[in-house]
Each structure stands twice: as structure tokens, then as C-alpha cells.
Design a protein that fits this description.
By secondary structure, this protein is mostly helical. The protein has one domain. The protein is built from seven helices and no strands. It has helices spanning 6-14, 19-36, 40-51, 55-59, 70-73, 80-94, 101-125.
């Protein structure tokens, strides 16, 4: 399981990689890790990986209301990220006895939202 670390994210971002692409990669790796996970320890690692800040957090100095991903990453009760975190917490307790499809579907939805927001930001810049 090779999740994207904060150190790797920042190194790649500082060498010129796109912050949105790195955010998408973080979640693609999480999705792949979920598919192959079977132990409580695996889900705990995924939970930690999901909590790692992304390059946009640094770029916007943790001012989420200014960040284009502020709505996606929101800790609000009904927000997509929060739903994923709550499900990951359940997996940390129950392991893979829960069906993974709901969690994978939510992560796929998050990836689509990240890609959509990237495209919207690109359109605004041009």
C-alpha cells in the first residue's frame, strides 16, 4: 500500500507538479488501497492517508474559505469528505466485513469533484 505522504506531495508540488493533480492522485491511491485492504491496520493507515494535508492547504495557508476545494474538503456534517472519514472510521473498527462498494463509490465521487473543480479553475484563469 503506497499512499501519498505529505512530504512526497510537497516535494513534487515544489518541483512544479499541479496541486490539483496531486490531490487527485492522493485519492486514487486511497481508492486502490481500499480495494486491497483486509485488516484493521490497513484501514487505519488509509484513515491517516486521507487526513494528510494537500499542497493547496499549504498554498492557501489553511484558509479553507479561500481555497477552491474548500467546499469539497469541508468538515461539515453532510460534506463528502466527512462522509468518507466517517465510513473509514467504521472500517477501522469493523475491517473488511463491511462492503467496500459504498466507500469506493464515495471516493470515486470525490475524485470526480476534484477533477471538476480543477477544470473550473482552469476555465476561470483563461
Amino acid at each position: 500500500m503506497k499512499l501519498l505522504s505529505f512530504e512526497e506531495t510537497m516535494k513534487r508540488y515544489e518541483s512544479g507538479e499541479n496541486a490539483f493533480d496531486l490531490a487527485v492522485e492522493k485519492w486514487v491511491r486511497i481508492r486502490e488501497a481500499i480495494k486491497s485492504s483486509y485488516s484493521l491496520n490497513h484501514f487505519a493507515l488509509i484513515m491517516r492517508g486521507a487526513s494528510i494535508r494537500i499542497a493547496l492547504c499549504v498554498e492557501y495557508n489553511d484558509n479553507c474559505f479561500l481555497c477552491p476545494l474548500g467546499n469539497i474538503c469541508s468538515q461539515e456534517k453532510d460534506g463528502l469528505f466527512r462522509k468518507i472519514v466517517r465510513l473509514l472510521q467504521a472500517y477501522c473498527v469493523a475491517g473488511d466485513i463491511l462492503p467496500k462498494s459504498t466507500l469506493i463509490d464515495l471516493v470515486d465521487q470525490l475524485i470526480k469533484e476534484l477533477e471538476k473543480t480543477k477544470e473550473e479553475c482552469i476555465k476561470l484563469r483563461h
